[in-house]
Amino acid sequence: MSQTPTRADFDQYMVPNYSPQKAIPVRGEGSRLWDQEGREYIDFAGGIAVNSLGHCHPVLVNALTKQANTLWHLSNVYTNEPALALARTLVERTFADKVYLCSSGGEANEAALKLARRWAHDNVGEHKNRIVSFSQSFHGRTFFTVSVGGQPKYSQGFGPVPGGIVHGEFNDLASVRDLIDDDTCAVMVEPMQGEGGIVPATQEFLQGLRDLCDAHDALLIFDEVQTGVGRTGSLYAYMEYGVTPDILTSAKGLGGGFPVGAMLTTDRVAPAMAIGTHGSTYGGNALASAVALAAIEHIGQPDVLEGVKRRHDLFREHLETINRKHGVFKEIRGKGLLVGAEMASEYEGRAKDILPLAIEEGVMALIAGPNVLRMAPSLVIPEADIAEGMMRLERAIARLVAGQ
Predict the structure, then answer these.
(1) Could you tell me if 169 and 200 lie in one domain?
(2) pTM above 0.90, yes or no
(3) Residue 223 among the catalytic residues
(4) Whether 258 is catalytic
(5) 85 and 150 belong to one structural domain
(6) Is 9 one of the annotated binding-site residues?
(7) In this predicted model, what pLDDT tens digit does every residue of 179-201 receive, in sequence order?
């Protein structure tokens, strides 16, 4: 680069579908980042639940460096050892029998939805194509996935949406009973809604969906793009509920920051994705697969998963302490290190106003809709960083309350 890029370059050269903060981070280590001016930040955002081991974790750096000096990409005309090792590990550690590798959560969900419809088409008939999803759900930004997602704002303005998609109410089993029938091919659900406000599913809801799918010979799809790979304190959230899906999607934390996605399914369903029915140019890329394998092996260790649950308690305790002082939150919820704090009625819709104040105080956070402050930090964030980050967050919230 002949000159140092600035935030103004984003407005000049980038399509305006994002509105990034003014600071440009240039270096990261663990749960801390430094920007172009050398300012330090504690990272409670985690790349939106992506940087599962923080920044530049040696396990991932070593895996990437080793693979980078060996083999990068082949195409799906061939297979490669890292992809096969990753697929085997995912099968051995989950309900799945088969794995499809891709490059993102949107791709994984697109593949899951296409597989469900193809399976129903091949085994029952083309009339069995209805997909049931839920209001406020989020499943990606492809046209199919935004149509299945329960937030119309993401599909408006792009023309007619695909047909055969209906939406029930999350955690309301009665609303699903009115929608599912023998023409339903799949029910797609997040075990905990992420973009919809960090709302965990109830045990009764997920078990009820499983029972309804079984009764109507429909497939149950769990979107674990955000909840998977240790985020809730289990390798995948479905394990905490004891409810097994037919298809599961994974991405975000799967690569610890390297783009990778996966769709997991069973021997009963997988044959519908026969040769030529679907594909991904970079899916099963050797670099991505090597990093994802290292990530899932490290995160899957019992002490790491137990640490996630312990850190959840710390986040909740700190947020409750802040709330006792400032009264800005109505409810604190979530599982593991996916934590949401819903704003109190007098601060309705103002979660986004905390973010720039937090940046100025040296801590990065997220929102989940306009009314929920969201945190999705590294699964191994040091407890000292949690304490320091919460001090900084409290200063930002105090400024919000004071009207600054």
Answers:
(1) yes
(2) yes
(3) yes
(4) no
(5) yes
(6) no
(7) 999 999 999 999 999 999 999 99
